[in-house]
């Protein structure tokens, strides 16, 4: 089973929930950081990295001695990554999406695949949990191609081992976030009961609902802000999977790199119960508790 | 004209709440929300929308099932696994389609359409703090960088037309496409961080990004009292890299209180926090004036 931990707004506690769930997960697990722009899960799980290597995207390399400057490549390219000016071919590798179109369309076979580094992919282990993360190179604009490669590595790991996966997704609801959650079995949305948290939670719910996947909410920092998110969940019948109360001591412990599930038996139980509810949600046996709106 | 962009790397550090307060304190400016994916600034500024435009960008492939001969060439050439085969019917998953046109160009029977994509909306609105240029990208859409660039162009035009001297922008979290677009042309980036492992890690990445594009950077350590030692560590890091740390702000529930009221902290009765925010804004103005390029 693949569980995505997502949120519209950043900083609501996605990584906290992902790390805490990892701690209480009973079945064999891969913890995956797909927030490749700002990966943080490793800071809490502190895995031993066993293998780390660059991730590449395919880019065109033009052999100008074979090129007839027919412009078939530049006419096809939708990303302005290859341009023919008179008898010069200019490529802009940082614009290239790696579609392979120019290579395939060139009638002279003058374009061959080269590569450009997107970032790195690391694999390791935190206790019995396998760990996988992508990290985008500074200055690199495109996160989805790196995320696709991390997901394909995850697929191999799951196929080989039959492990479950917890995905720490990037914030937002645009293409990186959607890319992260679209292949999961269950989506857990983490929010906080503030106007910003609620607004972005609604965006995320609207974005992910069309996938038709089991989806529930974890309300972090319960007790601050207002009750809008509770009323909305009640109205839309979005199951409330867990609530973690706001306590300053928790914020301070998090600031010191502690995992919330490790703080006290009470906090651990929140995530033990969340673990059980995720399986009930996936199986369709979760009983809707009316959130106290 | 000066352009100041507030960024953070990590989400939830207080970027938008502070930008809202700066929007209150700054004079003669256009405010711009460049977080087009999950924008929140309008919740504080409560804009009256004046002008709304549609944002089209890129294309998406669409198979005409009547013409498709199920040869499978598109599926074998697509690098994004966007071609779905369901029994003998081929279709394109628009969320996976990158809009590269390869399937369109190679389909032997010309069965693939390539319409332009309607990706979002943008607005020029009025607020009690002056004009706000903002947008909402539709869920799952790419090209947020292009929308960010468009918003900045609109903000520049508007500022020029109105004779404003400042564009104050709320950036997106992360370090990717929309953030890079936000930084282009900025005179000063203000990074809001918090003394947590994630806050520090993501600040280092966003600072490197500013270095990469040679944008001057000032740092605000928000909620510093959650971990004063880490706050000291962040300050030492900034000093070693030559970034100005312009404020250490305490963790104060007044920020959430203001948000619930749809106001910015400096509009509420004065507290230590809002006093510090006012001081911080003065420092930002000094830095931006010093860094101006024109």
Structural summary, described in words:
The complex is a heterodimer of chains A (293) and B (294). In chain A, the strands form two sheets. In chain A, strands 3-6-7-2-8-1-9-10-11 form a nine-stranded mixed beta sheet, with helices on both faces. Chain A has a two-stranded antiparallel sheet with strand order 4-5. In chain A, strand 4 (82-85) and strand 5 (88-91) form a beta hairpin. In chain A, helix 1 crosses helix 10 (265-283) and helix 5 packs parallel to helix 6 (175-181). Chain A has helices at 14-24, 41-45, 72-76, 101-105, 144-161, 175-181, 195-208, 228-236, 248-255, 265-283; strands spanning 2-6, 29-33, 48-62, 82-85, 88-91, 111-126, 129-136, 164-168, 186-191, 215-222, 240-245. Chain A is of the alpha/beta class and 293 residues long. With 294 residues, chain B is α/β, with parallel strands linked by helices. Chain B folds into two domains: 2-57 and 119-291, P-loop containing nucleotide triphosphate hydrolases (Rossmann fold, 3-Layer(aba) Sandwich); 61-114, 2-Layer Sandwich (Alpha-Beta Plaits). Helices cover 37% and strands 26% of the residues of chain B. Chain B has helices at 15-25, 41-45, 73-77, 102-106, 144-162, 177-183, 197-212, 228-241, 254-261, 272-291; strands spanning 2-7, 29-33, 48-59, 62-63, 83-86, 89-92, 112-113, 116-127, 130-137, 166-170, 188-193, 217-221, 244-248. In chain B, a hairpin with a 2-residue loop joins strand 8 and strand 9. In chain B, helix 5 runs parallel beside helix 6 (177-183). The chains are: A alpha/beta (293), B alpha/beta (294).
Main sheet: strand order of chain A: 3-6-7-2-8-1-9-10-11
The CATH H-level superfamily of the largest domain in chain B is P-loop containing nucleotide triphosphate hydrolases
Number of domains of chain A: 2
What structural class do helix, strand and pairing data of chain B support? alpha/beta
**Span of the ends, CA to CA of chain A:** 31 Å
Main beta-sheet annotation of chain A: 9 strands, mixed
CATH fold-level label of the largest domain in chain A? Rossmann fold
Order of helices and strands of chain B: EHEHEEHEEHEEEHEHEHEHEHH
**What's the multimeric state?**
heterodimer
CATH homologous superfamily caption of the largest domain in chain A: P-loop containing nucleotide triphosphate hydrolases
Gap from first CA to last CA of chain B:
8 Å
Strand proportion of chain B: 25-35%
Give unreliable regions of chain B as ranges.
none
CATH level 1 class label of the largest domain in chain B: Alpha Beta
CATH topology of the largest domain in chain B: Rossmann fold
Order of helices and strands of chain A: EHEHEHEEHEEHEHEHEHEHH
Q: Largest interface, per-chain counts?
A: A-B, 61 and 62 residues
């Amino acid at each position: 089973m693949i569980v995505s931990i997502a949120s519209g707004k950043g900083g609501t506690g996605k990584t906290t929930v992902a790390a805490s769930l990892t701690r209480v997960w009973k079945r064999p697990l891969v913890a995956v950081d797909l927030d490749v722009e700002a990966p943080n899960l490793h800071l809490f799980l502190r895995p031993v990295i066993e293998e780390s290597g660059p991730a590449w995207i395919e880019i065109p390399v033009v052999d100008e001695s074979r090129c007839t400057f027919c412009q078939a490549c530049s006419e096809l390219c939708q990303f302005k990554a290859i341009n023919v000016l008179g008898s010069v071919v200019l490529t802009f590798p940082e614009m290239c999406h790696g579609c392979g179109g120019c290579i395939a369309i060139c009638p002279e076979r003058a374009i061959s695949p080269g590569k450009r580094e997107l970032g790195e992919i690391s694999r390791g282990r935190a206790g019995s949990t396998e760990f996988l993360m992508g990290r985008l190179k500074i200055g690199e604009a495109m996160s989805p191609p790196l995320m696709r490669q991390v997901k394909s590595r995850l697929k191999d790991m799951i196929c080989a081992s039959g492990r479950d996966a917890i995905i720490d997704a990037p914030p937002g609801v645009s293409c990186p976030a959607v890319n992260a959650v679209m292949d999961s079995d269950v989506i857990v949305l983490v929010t906080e009961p503030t106007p910003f948290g609620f607004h972005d939670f609604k965006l995320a719910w609207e974005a992910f609902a069309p996938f038709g996947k089991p989806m529930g909410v974890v309300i972090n920092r319960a007790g601050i802000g207002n009750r809008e998110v509770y009323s909305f969940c009640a109205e839309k019948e979005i199951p409330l999977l867990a609530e973690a109360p706001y306590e300053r001591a928790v914020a301070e412990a998090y600031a010191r790199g502690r995992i919330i599930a490790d703080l006290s038996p009470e906090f651990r139980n929140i995530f033990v119960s969340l673990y059980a509810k995720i399986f009930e949600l996936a199986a369709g046996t979760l009983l809707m508790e009316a959130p106290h709106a | 004209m000066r352009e100041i962009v507030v960024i953070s790397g990590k989400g939830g550090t207080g970027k938008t709440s502070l930008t809202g307060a700066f929007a209150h304190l700054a004079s003669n400016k256009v405010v711009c929300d460049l977080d087009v994916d999950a924008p929140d600034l309008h919740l504080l500024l409560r804009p009256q929308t004046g002008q709304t435009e549609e944002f089209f960008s890129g294309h998406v492939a669409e198979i005409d099932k009547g013409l498709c001969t199920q040869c499978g060439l598109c599926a074998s050439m697509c690098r994004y696994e966007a071609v779905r085969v369901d029994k003998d019917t081929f279709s394109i998953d628009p969320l996976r389609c990158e809009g590269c046109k390869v399937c369109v160009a190679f389909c032997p029977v010309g069965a693939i359409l390539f319409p332009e994509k309607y990706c979002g909306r943008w607005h020029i609105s009025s607020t009690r703090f002056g004009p706000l240029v903002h947008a909402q990208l539709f869920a799952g859409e790419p090209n947020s960088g292009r929308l960010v660039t468009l918003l900045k162009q609109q903000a520049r035009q508007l500022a020029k037309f109105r004779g404003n001297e400042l564009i104050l922008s709320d950036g997106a979290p992360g370090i990717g496409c929309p953030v890079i677009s936000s930084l282009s042309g900025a005179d000063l980036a203000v990074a809001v961080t918090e003394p947590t492992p994630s806050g520090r890690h993501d600040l280092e990445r966003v600072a490197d990004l500013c270095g990469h594009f040679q944008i001057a950077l000032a740092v605000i350590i928000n909620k510093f009292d959650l971990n004063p030692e880490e706050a000291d560590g962040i300050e030492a890091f900034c000093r070693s890299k030559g970034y100005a740390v312009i404020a250490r702000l305490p963790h104060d529930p007044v920020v959430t209180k203001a948000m619930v009221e749809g106001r910015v902290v400096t509009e509420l009765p004065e507290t230590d926090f809002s006093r510090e925010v006012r001081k911080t804004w003065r420092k930002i103005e000094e830095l931006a004036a010093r860094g101006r390029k024109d």
